[in-house]
């Protein structure tokens, strides 16, 4: 069992790296953004409440997001080899809730990986991102294009831009990240599990560094 978090600002490559790490290490990738987007798409009562926060680049309130994501985390941790959590926790209150949940299940977080990328690079990555609405796989128009233009390699679905990937909302997401999510790094630093990486290299370069670290931890 190996549970880890991947952290970093919007566009840092959390989803991109998490999907590759999950594949390599045989873990489940669980992205809170994907869980929230699925609830919004299905128009559930929770999704209806979350939509306005998501569309404006704000965080969904802690209680609401924890109620949506908590059961997924529990079942992902219980089944199989472990989980790569992406996008949760995003506030110190969420980090405490996660610690409580793991303690109750007698589980622990083995690693927290933080990807550091300059803000100007983040904006370019996000305005050029394409995602698969069916399997949530992430592409970039130049850096990581699909094999056939506009179509997901995995399932052939038409790729689209996320509604929150426009410049105004991206700037708000970055502001919210610095204000509310950066303090979570100190929470994990104090617990001795945080490892920071330069996320500004190519996708493969970042992956090799992160995976080397994770494999050394797993082997230890
Ligand atoms: P979420 O879906 O988590 O979005 P985010 O944190 O803003 O992060 P992104 O998914 O935009 O970026 P990423 O780091 O995954 O980058 P990616 O790999 O795609 O959350 C969205 C919203 O949901 C929030 O605003 C909030 O409203 C709500 N929400 C979710 N979780 C919540 C929570 N816990 N609490 C409260 N609210 C919550 O890469 C980006 C692009 O760059 C891609 O095109 C990719 O191909 C490219 N790329 C990646 N790596 C590289 C590289 N090394 N070089 C060049 N290009 C690269
Ligand atoms: Mg993502």
| Class of secondary structure makeup | alpha/beta
Identify the overall geometry: globular
How helix-rich are the residues, as a percent range?
A: 40-55%
CATH architecture of the domain at 4-117 and 180-218: 3-Layer(aba) Sandwich
Low-confidence residue ranges: none
Question: What distance lies between the first and last C-alpha atoms, to the nearest angstrom?
Answer: 13 Å
Portion in strands = 5-15%
- Biggest beta sheet summary: 5 strands, parallel
Strand line-up of the largest beta sheet? 2-3-1-4-7
Order of helices and strands: EHEHHHEHEHEEHEH
The CATH superfamily of the domain at 4-117 and 180-218 bears the name P-loop containing nucleotide triphosphate hydrolases
Number of helices: 8
CATH class of the domain at 4-117 and 180-218: Alpha Beta
Mean pLDDT: 95
Fold-level CATH name of the domain at 4-117 and 180-218:
Rossmann fold
Descriptive notes:
This protein has a domain at 4-117 and 180-218: Rossmann fold, CATH 3.40.50.300. Helices cover 52% and strands 13% of the residues. The chain has eight helices and seven strands; from the N terminus they run βαβαααβαβαββαβα. The chain has helices at residues 14-25, 32-41, 45-56, 62-78, 92-104, 119-127, 167-190, 203-219, and strands at 4-7, 28-31, 83-86, 111-116, 129-131, 138-140, 194-198. The strands form two sheets. The protein has a five-stranded parallel β-sheet with strand order 2-3-1-4-7, with helices on both faces. Strands 5-6 form a two-stranded antiparallel sheet. A hairpin with a 6-residue loop joins strand 5 (129-131) and strand 6. Helix 2 packs across helix 3, helix 4 packs parallel to helix 5 (92-104) and helix 6 (119-127) crosses helix 7. The mean pLDDT is 95. Bound molecules: BIS(adenosine)-5'-pentaphosphate (AP5) and magnesium ion. Residues 14-15, 31, 33 line the site of magnesium ion (MG).
